[in-house]
Amino acid sequence: MKFKPLEILTHIILILGVLLMVLPIWFSFATSTHDNVSIMTEGMKFFLGESFSQNYNEVLNEKGGWSEEVTAARMFVNSFIMALGIATLKVVISAMSAYALVYFRFKLAVPIFWLIFITLLVPLEVRIFPSYKIVSDLGLTNTYTGLILPLVASATATFFFRQFYKTIPDELLESAKLDGANSWRFFIDFLLPLSKTMLAAMFIFMFVYGYSQYLWPLIMTTDEKYWTVVMGMKIIFTENYEGVALPRTGERFAYIILSMLPPVLVVVILQRWFIKGLIQTEK
Amino acid sequence: MVYQRIDSNRKIKMSFLELQNITKIYPNGTKAVNETSLNIENGEFVVFVGPSGCGKSTLLRMIAGLEDITNGEISLDGNIINKIDPSERDVAMVFQNYALYPHMSVFNNMAYGLKNRGISKEEINNKVNDVAKLLEIDQLLTRKPSMLSGGQRQRVAMGRAIVRNPKIFLFDEPLSNLDAKLRNQMRLEIKRLQRQMGVTSIFVTHDQTEAMTLGDRIVVINNGVVEQVGTPKEIYSKPNTKFVAEFIGSPQMNLFNCKIENGIAHIADMKINLNNSTNLDDATLGIRPDDILISDNGKHSCVANLVEYLGSDMIIYSKIGDQEFSCKLSSKINLNSGDTFKFDISGTSVHLFDNTTGSRV
Q: In this structure, are strands B45-49 and B217-222 parallel, antiparallel, or unpaired?
């Protein structure tokens, strides 16, 4: 096999790009398998050490916080529930609202769409106090509902779904109508399968969005049982040390590696749909 | 036609499909269909033909229920269907771009309408397989539409309509996306299938060849108005209006502005005896290009400005006075551009229209 110079060059660039992204993760992982003394004295590691099970076990099961009630495992569960809830509801609600905006002829469809669109200018951080006030008045502080509900509307996803639905030819709807599909069936049997790729992509984005929420859970939760991974990251990095204890760098890296896993899993699981949709347009 | 009054709900048993004074005005004020009435009998194959934008598709879509009816009444099989949802009308439509469901296999494309009707799986299987065999697409049932050729897609679209066994088939220019050869083939096939199944069908096209070959009856539409309804033969041999005369027939009918005095038509210095006693100051005389008979001892003579050779036929373009005309003749005759030729026009083969009304005299 012969390589052309351009091909070699492009491959070098690609490989460099891959290294640039993979190496920091690898360093973190390798470092997380060493004990704190060797990290302290020798710095970041490239090769695997022997403290893997000890570090990870300690991170997952050690009780933290003031009340000494919450473990990292618990925080992972919390984050997962929150991200899953946000992503699922965001995708479902935006797909449905876009469906209403595109396919149902009601008078204010266009102004309503722009109203939804304008909310992009008002992210959660801007309206955090009003949102908090409403959620606490509803008695939803320290609940999963409270964590998820204020974040489930998405102008971005609504916009993307709307644009996608607009590209679907009218004949498809008409033909489905003649075949006896009502509006619910058209949504389930046509729009959802046709937008599989969009759904998968949106779910991934929204999952990562939900997973990386920091400010909202921080304000929302006073009960440590509802703490999330991102909040935990702050705790594990600002621990107080008594006496001569070393900073627990190994555990910190273990925590970081673990915190990356759920989003990675979601991408890995959904990428089959995602890639398939990208390479084969079914229109 | 049997008229039978059912007093309770003012239902009148009439033709299978009946359009009464149908008018369609779009929200922007365009009048697409104007006061159209039409009766279609069970099992008939009717073709709507007209230039693009004449309202023929709108009319079809109103029958399907995809378009609201501004005014008038449509009844199908004795029931007024104006307000009935398209899914309840029991009509099937074949769209111009087929509108196959891209994410479903051919089988599911055909089965979808049946599933929505709550038909059992076994029956769906049998029906789809039968129709697939009929259309010779039984090898393709597992494929997605994106893996099919244009002709195959067309067949699937037909199959999807046939499998539901509807009261009416509606075809919205289904052949216009195919190449010429395939189009002829599918045209024959549609005709054969329709005969075989005897299902009432309406076919919309702008192609007069399709209209002439497919239709039991042809409805010529122009500017939202029905110009003429009749068998292909009637439409061709006795066009009601100048529009129909010009629209049907290839090459186009020659239309001469002329003056009729005592049954004699004067076109420039040419005189044609119509064998009647009509008097018209402003008339149009229509003569089909193949009704101009070339013979060595013809009464009239002209110079052939251009000769178009088409294989078995040729078309000669010439002028009488300042009015252009064409005539079609066998290419066995030896005639070249610039030659003078002699011809006769029989007074009985011409079509006379009054210019003030545009209709046949």
A: parallel
Identify the pLDDT of residue B4.
44
For chain B, give every residue range classified as CATH 2.40.50.140.
256-354
Does the domain at residues A69-279 carry the CATH identifier 1.10.3720.10? yes
Q: Are A181 and B116 a contacting pair at CB < 8 A?
A: yes
Nearest to A180 among B66, B117, B146 (CB): B117
Cβ–Cβ < 8 Å for B318, B305? yes
Query: Which residue out of A175, A199, A280 would a mutagenesis test of the B interface target, given it has the greatest number of B Cβ atoms within 10 Å?
Result: A175
Is the domain defined by B256-354 classed in CATH 2.40.50.140?
yes
pLDDT in tens, B291-317: 998 888 888 889 999 999 998 999 999
Three-class SS state of A267: helix
At B11, which helix (H) or strand (E)?
strand B11-13
Fold of B4-243: Rossmann fold (3.40.50)
**Contact, B156 vs B125, CB < 8 A?**
no
CB of B113 less than 8 A from some CB of A:
yes
Closest CB to A190: pick one of B96, B97, B101: B101
DSSP label of A245: P
Q: Which of these, A232, A238, A240, lies nearest to A256 by C-alpha position? A: A232
